[in-house]
Design goal:
mainly alpha, three-stranded mixed beta sheet, two-stranded parallel ribbon, 47% helix, DUF247_pln, membrane, transmembrane, transmembrane helix
Length: 338
């Protein structure tokens, strides 16, 4: 059944990218706006994966051995983070291909080359049938720069975005990030790349996380990211705050739906403690939050310097206090005037 579904989907996607007589003389559900998205969502379901060499064979059949149309890359490009796909890596199924594209490659310390672990399932175990990325799916041999190493730091919980904001943490959209995982915290400023979520990407993220957790040999980049976002987003108030800062672009029905999604998603997407990519960041944020000085300073800024009128009121009060002190000094020490 999966083989038949895959063949039909490949044929549909190939037709959707064609032009001319074929498109003018056929009626197809891909004419509607959600057609391609629905097909891609079905192809990338974790339970629908089949070995990639079959995908390559079906692609050759569908395209009449042309092999010159970057079909899948063209269709997946709007949902990708990295513009480059590392070349020369063995891929096991379509979801694995998308995972390699979505999660930037890490430079291996031992070999100095890009390495991707194989999934646990024997169905996609490394063998002669595990294809190298074919020429029609290659974009660039250049990969992302080295990622930060994983830290074996005990996982610490952090407050939600609203509580952190009240404690003085400033949320800011990351400018020119390397990838969606390029999150930094320095001097009370938490910089996060813009995160777009819609009904299609929601399915993609869930299946990517399921694939990532299917093998203990794989790193937990995406799972760590989900754990961080689940910690920051508890209610729709947190979503509103992150939207106002330009961090979240929510295309779902409402903010409450996004909050529920991350709460449910994060409940079963818990990374191993020794694979938590953001452990140092969790520790730094929690230490900053526990500082009383930062909380007092934030309360002062929020209560008295959150708008121009409050600032003017504080300035007027300070001026009156100075005048009162001068007048009191003149009464207490009258000889100063002579």
């Amino acid at each position: 059944m999966n083989l038949l579904r895959c063949y039909c989907s490949m044929a549909a996607l190939s037709w959707s990218s064609s032009s001319g007589y074929v498109r003018r003389n056929h009626t197809f559900f891909l004419d509607v706006g959600w057609g391609i998205k629905t097909t891609l969502s079905d192809l990338l379901l974790f339970e629908n994966q089949i070995p990639f060499f079959i995908i390559e064979t079906l692609y050759t059949v569908v395209t009449n051995n042309e092999g010159d149309r970057d079909l899948l890359l063209h269709l997946l490009e709007p949902y990708s983070i990295s513009p480059d796909l590392p070349a020369g890596n063995k891929i096991f199924h379509l979801l694995h291909l998308y995972y390699q594209w979505f999660v930037p490659g890490r430079i291996s310390k031992s070999s100095g080359s890009i390495s991707f672990p194989s999934p646990r399932s024997s169905t996609f175990s490394e063998s002669s049938e595990c294809k190298q990325i074919p020429s029609w799916l290659r974009t660039s041999s250049l990969s992302k720069s080295n990622k930060k190493p994983y830290y074996k730091i005990p996982m610490r919980s952090i407050p939600c975005a609203t509580e952190l904001h009240e404690a003085g943490v400033t949320f800011r959209k990351k400018k020119s990030p390397c990838d969606v995982f390029d999150i930094t915290f320095e001097n009370g400023i938490l910089e996060i790349p813009t995160f777009l979520i819609d009904s299609v990407k929601r399915v993609f993220y869930m299946n990517l996380a399921a694939f990532e957790q299917s093998s203990s040999a794989m790193e937990h980049d995406l799972t760590s990211y989900v754990a961080l976002m689940n910690a920051l987003i508890k209610t729709n108030k947190d979503v509103v705050l992150l939207k106002r800062c330009g961090i979240i672009n929510n295309m779902l029905l409402n903010d409450e739906e996004l909050a529920v999604f991350f709460n449910q998603f994060g409940a079963w997407s818990t990374p191993y403690s020794d694979k938590q990519y953001f452990s140092p960041l969790f520790a730094e944020v929690q230490t900053y939050y526990e500082s009383r000085w930062h909380k007092y300073r934030a309360k002062l800024l929020h209560d008295y310097f959150n708008n121009p009128w409050s600032v003017l009121s504080v300035i007027a009060a300070v001026v009156l206090l100075i005048f009162a002190a001068i007048q009191a000094a003149g009464v207490i020490f009258p000889d100063i005037h002579h």
